[in-house]
């Protein structure tokens, strides 16, 4: 630093602490609300200090949900979310890494053409082709299934680009040495390229898991059977199910549970997360 | 072990760059051939064609009795040492050495035996469990060598294997590689642009220029009788002085040049062939003004201005003479040490 | 486009490797998009097959751009996207500049500021919806003390502010990380040189640091607009559902409503096509930016 003026730093700390407080506040409120009995939310202002009903609220949420409004127990929804997130993540990673391998390490007719087809996925997010995509999935009989929840989402231009980018930095001679050593393409991929890509895979894993877990519109479209509801979309049913005010204590317990897995992933794998985020978007 | 035969080898890259043209070369079994030439002359390309890492556009390549033009690198029974070593970064030294053997389905015991033997030969036994990044440059170089050794191939291919090492280590490894090669008697093709490396290591030297072979021969043949002006300028340091014959006639007596053929219109003089002793029988004299004296410890380089000549003329003496810049010096030179060339074709004429 | 100088040669293998990705792309991306294009120039038939679908040229588009509800949605989307982008980017830049001054506490602050990225837009929406709840929320309570009567159920502006805050909140983390990386990449010597030239801290920021951040800022601008336009569906759907009185009915939400709830496929398809156009333009801008950077 050029000059370390004390007041400047003090001022910066004040801004940051305030900033962090504001950023954390919504989640703090959610956690607090999830510890209060239902009666607290009937009138007055929402509580800012913990209540005593945490255990009860969470067990109700996890095991029962809000059955009367047709919302299944949270436990099942979390499991569905987990399956969907893992399927999307693993699917995206595997098909992207092999596509990038084909594009970088082979020369074949149509290479550029296929590259552009993959690139097009960037330009066609689900949100702009809602109805026809729904029709396709319905025609394949994939509504209300894990296949339907995950497969249509696993094409990934960004992951393919990232792997391509990374492969281009792998020294040419490594592949040449491997060939002299008698390794064919798939052996080279498995023995050398894959181990070298581990950090990139892990970084992308973090990003993709969050992406998969947080899917909203897609499960909303293709699940009508509560057995396949995922937690993020399930919250909406809890909020709007019925005309009465939402059952805030249960909603907030659900919110906390829905946010927990991806938040933990970020907190424990912050370095990989930052790497994944800043590199996929470059 | 095997001989290598190159018959009219050509390489045209996609895009039309002609990197290697009509290369004919027979490498005898057990011979160490060094490829030299300026940057971009096609040395690596030729080597990689032999390795199978570049396709052969035209011509025939044989290793032993087999035509290998269309064989995969792995099927050519060669091993290669790369300039940047290309060690597998995630594998231990042991596995780096063993990988090629595993892929060829060797038994575990045999792999173990060969790896340990190579490691012992290269003195890298204590590093077998380390990853490449935990090694120094010189140690990595040895591992790269080891990876080639364990395969016990018909031929070694080296692409500037020492250029990433510092000067001292380079000399040491140069000696080791040569000793090892002599001991194993494995046919070797070695690419370098360091002429000292080339001269000291080669059984025979190949000078490449713009994708063509300029000359093939033992280091001493190339040094004492360079076949072209290119080779003359490339081998030897400082480079050979080149004087037009017409000009030289004005400096020396007609007798001095009488033994040279008529077509020789360019005369080469090696800086180290000059001496400050007075001319004796069979010697000629050359006088120039000393512009700059470069002492270099045991020897010295003298930059001279010859009357009426634009270019600087260089002499190399095996001592540092006690002379001052600006004075005129007379050198003597044996007449048979003149190198006569035809300037139009660049060929030596006698 | 580059490959390695030496490539494997197996005629069928690269196709096999590309197949899963390409097949999924064709089935779930290209084909539906093509369908959307097709539907956008047809009037849908009735359910009994008495009146077959009819090719109507650009009538759906004409109808769309004559529809005050759609024009309103365009306007709402613009306000929403700009509001979200500006809010999250400026807050993130402020945080990044402050954190970049820190040495010891840098990682701690970063940890506290990055995790909201993990929270789904829909959940972010619900969180702020709760905070702004007119009867029990803390914000209306506090606003009431300064004499403002907050009610996003009736007041469109209030609703818009709420969804902007909810959408921007989560995106702060993202922008913060990029700004911080950008700031860390600015050579300290440049700033020192400016200091020696007598530039004040403020001046140094606006004349040296900010211009050097401009590539990142531009990049984030595009990314944030894309985010606000397409990824915030959950925020709207889980809270305001486009209301009150269309005040937060952004384009993406409208496509969904018209297609799924109102079953107006022709119009929904035309809207999809318009959205596709917008994404393509944004992607091209973004890609040109990437290309420029790659060339550096
Ligand atoms: N993949 C390629 N495509 C097109 N041209 C190439 C390719 N590789 C090399 N070349 C060209 O072929 C010529 C010979 O290159 P090569 O690498 O064999 O030179 P070199 O003698 O090894 O040089 P250096 O001493 O610098 O390593 C050069 O002009 C080079 O630009
Ligand atoms: Mg080379």
Uncertain regions spanning at least 5 consecutive residues of chain A: none
Give the amount of beta strand of chain A, in percent: under 5%
Number of strands of chain C: 2
Question: What amount of the residues of chain C lies in strands?
Answer: under 5%
Give the C-level CATH assignment of one domain in chain A: Mainly Alpha
CATH superfamily of one domain in chain A: MetI-like
Q: Can you tell me the number of structural domains of chain C?
A: 1
Instruction: Tell me roughly what share of residues is in helical segments of chain A.
Output: 55-70%
CATH fold-level assignment of one domain in chain A: MetI-like fold
Can you tell me about this structure?
The complex is a heterotrimer of chains A (282), B (350) and C (296). Chain A is an all-alpha fold. Chain A contains 14 helices and no strands. Chain B has 2 domains: 4-231, P-loop containing nucleotide triphosphate hydrolases (Rossmann fold), CATH 3.40.50.300; 240-341, OB fold (Dihydrolipoamide Acetyltransferase, E2P) (Beta Barrel). Chain B is 27% helix and 29% strand. Chain C is 72% helix and 1% strand. With 296 residues, chain C is mostly helical. The chains are: A mainly alpha (282), B alpha+beta (350), C mainly alpha (296). Chains in contact: A-B, A-C. Chains A and C meet through helix 1, helix 3, helix 4, helix 5 and helix 8 of A and helix 1, helix 3, helix 4, helix 5 and helix 7 of C. Adenosine-5'-triphosphate binds at residues 13, 15, 17, 19, 37, 39-45, 193 of chain B. The site of adenosine-5'-triphosphate has 13 residues of chain B, from helix 1.
């Amino acid at each position: 630093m050029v000059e370390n003026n004390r007041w400047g730093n003090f001022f910066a700390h004040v801004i940051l602490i305030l900033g962090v407080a504001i950023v954390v506040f919504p989640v703090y409120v959610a956690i607090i609300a999830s510890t209060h009995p239902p009666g607290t939310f009937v009138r007055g202002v929402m509580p800012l200090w913990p209540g005593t009903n945490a255990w009860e609220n969470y067990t109700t949420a996890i095991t029962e949900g809000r059955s009367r409004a047709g919302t299944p127990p949270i436990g099942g929804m979390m499991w569905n979310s987990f399956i969907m997130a893992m399927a999307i993540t693993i699917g995206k990673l595997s098909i992207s890494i092999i596509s990038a391998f084909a594009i970088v390490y082979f020369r074949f007719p149509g290479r550029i053409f296929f590259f552009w087809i993959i690139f097009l996925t960037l330009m066609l997010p689900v949100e702009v082709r809602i109805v026809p995509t729904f029709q396709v999935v319905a025609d394949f009989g994939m509504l209300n299934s894990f296949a339907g929840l995950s497969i249509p989402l696993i094409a990934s231009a960004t992951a393919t680009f990232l792997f391509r980018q990374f492969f281009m930095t792998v020294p040419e001679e490594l592949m040449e040495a491997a060939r002299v050593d008698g390794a064919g393409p798939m052996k080279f991929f498995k023995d050398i390229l894959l181990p070298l890509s581990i950090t990139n895979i892990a970084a992308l894993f973090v990003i993709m898991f969050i992406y998969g877990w947080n899917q909203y519109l897609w499960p909303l479209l293709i699940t009508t059977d509560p057995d396949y509801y995922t937690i993020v979309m399930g919250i909406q049913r809890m909020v709007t199910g019925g005309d009465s005010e939402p059952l805030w204590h249960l909603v907030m317990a659900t919110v906390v549970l829905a946010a927990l897995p991806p938040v933990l992933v970020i907190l424990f794998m912050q370095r990989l997360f930052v790497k994944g985020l800043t590199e996929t978007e470059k | 072990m095997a001989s290598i035969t190159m018959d009219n080898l050509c390489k045209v890259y996609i895009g039309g760059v002609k990197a290697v043209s009509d290369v004919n070369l027979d490498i005898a079994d057990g011979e160490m051939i060094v490829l030299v030439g300026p940057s971009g002359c096609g040395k690596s390309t030729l080597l990689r064609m032999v390795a199978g890492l570049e396709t052969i556009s035209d011509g025939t390549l044989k290793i032993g009795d087999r035509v290998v033009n269309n064989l995969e690198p792995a099927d050519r029974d060669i091993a290669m040492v790369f300039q940047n070593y290309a060690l597998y970064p995630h594998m231990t030294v042991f596995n780096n050495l063993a990988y090629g053997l595993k892929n060829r389905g060797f038994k575990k015991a045999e792999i173990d035996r060969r790896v340990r033997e190579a490691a012992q030969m290269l003195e890298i036994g204590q590093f077998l469990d380390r990853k490449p990044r935990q090694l120094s440059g010189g140690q990595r170089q040895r591992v790269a060598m080891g990876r080639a050794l364990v395969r016990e191939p018909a031929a070694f291919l080296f692409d500037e294997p020492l250029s990433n090492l510092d000067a001292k280590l380079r000399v040491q490894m140069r000696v080791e590689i040569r000793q090892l090669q002599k001991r194993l008697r494995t046919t070797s093709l070695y690419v370098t642009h360091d002429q000292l490396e080339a001269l000291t290591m080669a059984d025979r030297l190949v000078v490449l220029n713009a994708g063509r072979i300029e000359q093939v021969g033992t280091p001493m043949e190339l040094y004492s009788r360079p076949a072209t002006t290119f080779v003359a300028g490339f081998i030897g340091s400082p480079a050979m002085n080149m004087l037009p014959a017409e000009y030289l006639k004005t400096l020396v007596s007609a007798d001095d040049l009488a033994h040279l053929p008529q077509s020789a219109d360019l005369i080469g003089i090696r800086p180290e062939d000059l001496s400050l002793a007075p001319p004796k029988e069979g010697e000629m004299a050359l006088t120039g003004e000393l512009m700059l004296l470069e002492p270099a410890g045991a020897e010295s380089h003298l930059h001279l201005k010859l009357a009426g000549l634009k270019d600087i003329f260089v002499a190399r003496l095996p001592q540092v003479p006690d002379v001052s810049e600006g004075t005129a010096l007379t050198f003597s030179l044996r007449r048979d040490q003149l190198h006569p060339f035809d300037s139009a074709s660049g060929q030596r004429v006698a | 486009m580059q490959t390695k100088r030496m490539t494997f040669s197996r005629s069928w293998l690269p196709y096999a490797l590309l197949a899963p990705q390409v097949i999924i792309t064709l089935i779930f991306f290209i084909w539906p998009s093509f369908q959307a294009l097709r539907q956008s120039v047809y009037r849908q038939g009735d359910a009994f097959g008495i009146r077959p679908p009819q090719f109507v040229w650009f009538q759906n588009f004409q109808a769309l751009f004559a529809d005050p509800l759609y024009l309103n949605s365009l306007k709402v989307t613009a306000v929403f996207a700009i509001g979200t982008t500006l809010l999250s980017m400026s807050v993130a830049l402020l945080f990044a500049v402050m954190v970049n001054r820190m040495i010891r506490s840098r990682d701690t602050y970063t940890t506290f500021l990055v995790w909201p990225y993990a929270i789904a837009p829909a959940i972010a929406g619900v969180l702020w919806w709760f905070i702004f709840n007119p009867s029990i929320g803390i914000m209306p309570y506090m606003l009431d003390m300064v004499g403002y009567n907050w009610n996003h159920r009736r007041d469109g502006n209030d609703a818009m502010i709420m969804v902007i805050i909810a959408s921007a909140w989560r995106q702060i983390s993202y922008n913060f990380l990029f700004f911080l990386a950008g700031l860390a990449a600015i050579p300290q010597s440049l700033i020192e040189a400016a200091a020696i030239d007598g530039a004040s801290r403020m001046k140094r920021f606006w004349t040296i640091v900010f211009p050097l951040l401009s590539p990142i800022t531009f990049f984030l601008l595009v990314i944030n607009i894309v985010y606000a336009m397409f990824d915030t569906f959950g925020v709207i759907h889980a809270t305001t559902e486009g209301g009150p009185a269309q005040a937060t009915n952004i384009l993406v939400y409208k496509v969904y409503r018209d297609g799924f709830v109102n079953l107006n496929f022709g119009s929904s398809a035309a809207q999809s096509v318009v959205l596709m156009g917008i994404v393509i333009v944004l992607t091209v801008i973004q890609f040109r930016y990437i290309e420029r950077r790659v060339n550096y």
